[in-house]
Structure formats: structure tokens, C-alpha cells
Amino acid sequence: xxxxxxxxxxxxxxxxxxxxxxxxxxxxxxxxxxxxxxxxxxxxxxxxxxxxxxxxxxxxxxxxxxxxxxxxxxxxxxxxxxxxxxxxxxxxxxxxxxxxxxxxxxxxxxxxxxxxxxxxxxxxxxxxxxxxxxxxxxxxxxxxxxxxxxxxxxxxxxxxxxxxxxxxxxxxxxxxxxxxxxxxxxxxxxxxxxxxxxxxxxxxxxxxxxxxxxxxxxxxxxxxxxxxxxxxxxxxxxxxxxxxxxxxxxxxxxxxxxxxxxxxxxxxxxxxxxxxxxxxxxxxxxxxxxxxxxxxxxxxxxxxxxxxxxxxxxxxxxxxxxxxxxxxxxxxxxxxxxxxxxxxxxxx
Length: 348
Fold this sequence. Notes:
The chain is α/β, with parallel strands linked by helices. Helix content is 49%, strand content 13%.
């Protein structure tokens, strides 16, 4: 209840930031912001239009490669640099998000898994999750018991993400075995199908940068050294060969990384993004760039993009600011457009 009241107390200031009447000092402090999105299905098109209109009005929207250079080198003083990124290479990003980006003239980066594009496959966690929804409670509980996870679907997926790669693939096969009649619905295909090579090649390279998301979206720390290099370096080679574009950016699948994976990424890419929340500041590691989940609503987005402003709360007496740790809690608790449900996972 106290948290809810605190969020409501920030609403007027969120409106002022959204309108551009507050937060100008924070916007122009030289910090870069990188938005993280995944799928944009049709039902979220209107919300994404509002996000696009807002960031174009309030920020200097740059390609990711340019933002990383400007912000990390301390060249963004007096500017409000922001980049837009989409993980997973989903077809709805091409069908729904791309026309909106074109209309607003906003550059973005699409992170793609080329082997999955070749195979016309879904990301493994998307497929497993949707197959599990078809199982009766008893069969679901049996699989959960085998995996030593909780009985909920998300508990099973989380457990699979923590398994060594061989065990995870065995679990995938077990789920396929339990769902032999699985046929995706049209709506599921709209949510989870990946863009084709033809669709990716048709994207305007002046507007959309293609980045690597590994070959098959594994959990990188679960791989041995050879597989790690194959997934990371092989993805860049495959993307460049198929699209005839330079690929310099990388996104860590699920945000999972370790020292070995970061070293491998440094060898192959100029910059890389994580799922850790934060701003890109002078001196930021260009291969561990933080991002901001896009919240479910433009006012929440205004709060997230003005985090430094909302870490201070205006007082009613003088309009001065005092520190408030509750704002940090509120920001950490924001829900995103992409909920933990299929392609709507906040970190897939």
C-alpha cells in the first residue's frame, strides 16, 4: 500500500517530465539511454507509437553504435542521446515496429539469431513455454518433478535456463515428446515467428542496424569454450554473409554472461548490451552497456528515463529536492510492456 501511494505521488512529476516541463537537466547531463524491447505484437502497436512519439520529442535518438561512442567517450554534454534496441529478431518487429520507426524516423538495432532464421525455428524458451501450456496439470507436474523445479511454467523455464546445455536440450526433447500434437495458433506464430532473411534484408540499413544475438540463443555460461566462440563469433560471420552488412553490436541472450563470454564478445564486436538497468555514462564499458526495459505506459517510461531526477523527490515547501530511497524501489518494481509470458519476457 505504501509503495502504491508513493508511485501515485510521483505521477504529477512524471507528467511534467513527459511534457518536457521537468527533467531537462537530467536529460542533458550527457548520459545515454538504451531502450530494450522484445516483441511488438499488434496489440502493443498503439503503445509503441506513443513511446516513439515521446522519445523523438524529448531525446536525441541515435544508432546504438553512435550512442555508445558519444556517451562512453564523454562527448554528449548538453545532449540527450538515446538508442532503441529489439532482441530476438522477431517477425512482428519487422511487421509492426519497423513501420512505426520509419514513420517517426527513428533508428534502431534488431538483434538476430541467424541459425534459428535458417531453421525457421522459434527461440527454444518460446517453444518450450507454449508447449507446456498445452499440458494437463498432471503431465506438467511430472516434467517439473523430473527437472526439480516448481510446478509453474515459468519455474520450469527458469530451471531449464540454469541447466548445462546438454541437459537443457534433453529437457526440450522431453517436452516435445509430451506434446506430439502441438501446432502453433496464428496468434502464437505472430508472437514468436522470427523474421526471414528476405524480411531482414529489406530493412533500410540507414534506419535499422542488425546486431548479433548468438546463433541459437543459448545461455552463454552453460557452454564450453569452443561452443561459446562458435555461438558468438559464428553469429557475426553468418549475419554478415547473409545480409552483406557489417555487424558490430551484440546482445547477451537472457542477459546471462561470465568472464569467458565477455572476452569472446570483445574479440568479435565493437559494443554489446546487457539487460542490467542503468544509463551509459562516460567511461562505461562498451561491451557491458546497460539498458532500460520499456515500461507498460509512457508515464512509467518518463520515470525510468529520468531516474536521476526521480531519485530526488520535490518537497512541498520549497520545490527543492531530497533523497528518497523509495523511488529506487518503485523503479525496480516497474512492469514492462514485455511481461514474462512468451515473447513478452523482459529478458529472453
